[in-house]
Amino acid sequence: MKVHRYKDLGYTSFFNPKTGFFARVEDEGEKEPFWSPYGPELIDISITNWCDKECNFCYQNSSKDGKNMSIDDFKKIIDAAAQIGVYQIALGGGNPNQHPRFIDMIEYSFLKGIITNYTTNGRGLSDKVIEYSKKFCGAVAVSAYQPFDETSMAIEKLVKSKIKVNIHFVLDKDSISTAINWLKYPPDFISGINALIFLNYKPSGRYIFHNKLLRYSERIQEFLEIATNKSYRFKIGFDSCCVSGLYARTNTIDETIDACDAGRFSMYISEDLKAYPCSFEKNLHSGDQISSKDDIIKIWKESPNFKHYRDYFNSDICDGCVDKNKCKNGCPLFEEIVICGRR
After folding, report:
1. What is the rounded distance in angstroms from the CA atom of residue 311 to the CA atom of residue 316?
2. Residues 132 and 262 in one domain
3. Are residues 105 and 214 in the same domain?
């Protein structure tokens, strides 16, 4: 168990590298911390924007022309992260496990005491990638894409190797019906997974489909009730972009839900070494350029963009709402993804 004590902020954080358990525990009489001025606890890193699937809904516009982050730049980030006390990183892309130096990257992070998790589209999971993922990584998330052939094959391969597997399922107005069916009648290929995690569709990327926004579905309440009121062989999770609906529409225990951490406890770094509070901001903002490892903590503390996020989460946009202090006003980027029904 790794422990970071922040006496001046009135809380302690705990992280178990083996299980992935994480918690912030306030001192007696202290409030829940709003942000960490000492740096992020999690860094989401795009090590490549290369992907040969070129899905029309890709929010990163990844393609076969996508660029790779250099191994030296990656080490620069990891060295800074280790110095700050980052517990874990999440590698994305593109398809990160097809980066030519992927194995070197996850090994370097491991040796620096940082747990690596990554998301894959299911391609490029060679025997060597599987072997080293089991050795150096905490969990692997497989993105679920119809017709789910590659999804199911990737899950089967990872589960067979006894790697902790999560599924990332993008929820939108149309896919919510498939999600409901999966929860009612789980397909065989998800039987051995650790968790099924639902991600609220964001209007960002190669093509933007406003008509697919989750808030336009008439089945939101049905889905949330099924997802939160039944027991499954696997865990059910949600990204922070879904929390407005969880607070407003379910009886889920507050302690199991957390508002968006962007700019408060997490940050995103693109393959071209630009820092953002959130990965979905990449196509909306120029980002803060990282030139040296010292830039990461400087950006975290001083960037006007990061401050903007914290100001938003602390603003009075949703004054009068009973869940305002828990939901933190929802998303600072896309007002239209809020699904509480109150905005």
Report:
1. 10
2. yes
3. yes
> In terms of residue numbers, what domain contains 296?
37-337
Q: What CATH number should be reported for the domain holding residue 141? A: 3.20.20.70
- Domain check: are 89 and 2 in the same one? no
Say if residue 5 is exposed, middle or buried (CB neighbours under 10 Å; 0-12, 13-18, 19+). Answer: exposed
Q: Which of 2, 15, 17 is nearest to 116 (CA)?
A: 17
For 162, the token pair is 């006894």
Whose structure tokens read 């903002």?
A: 285
- What the block records as the tokens of 91 is 């590698």
Query: What is the per-residue pLDDT across 64-99, written as a single tens digit (0 to 9) for each?
Result: 999 999 999 999 999 999 999 999 999 999 999 999
Q: Residue 169, Cα to own-chain centre: how many angstroms?
A: 12
Q: How, if at all, do strands 274-276 and 288-289 pair? A: antiparallel
Which amino acid makes up residue 84? Answer: I
Give the residue among 88, 154, 157 at the shortest CA–CA distance from 123: 154
pTM of the model: 0.96
Of residues 254, 243, 265, 227, the one with CA closest to residue 90: 265
Q: Residue 162: which region, alpha, beta or left (left: phi > 0; alpha: psi -120 to 50)? A: left
Contact 315, 272 (CB under 8 A): no
Look at residue 123 and tell me if it is in a domain.
yes
Report residue 259 CA to chain centroid gap.
12
Question: CA-CA distance, 44 to 119, in Å (whole number)?
Answer: 11
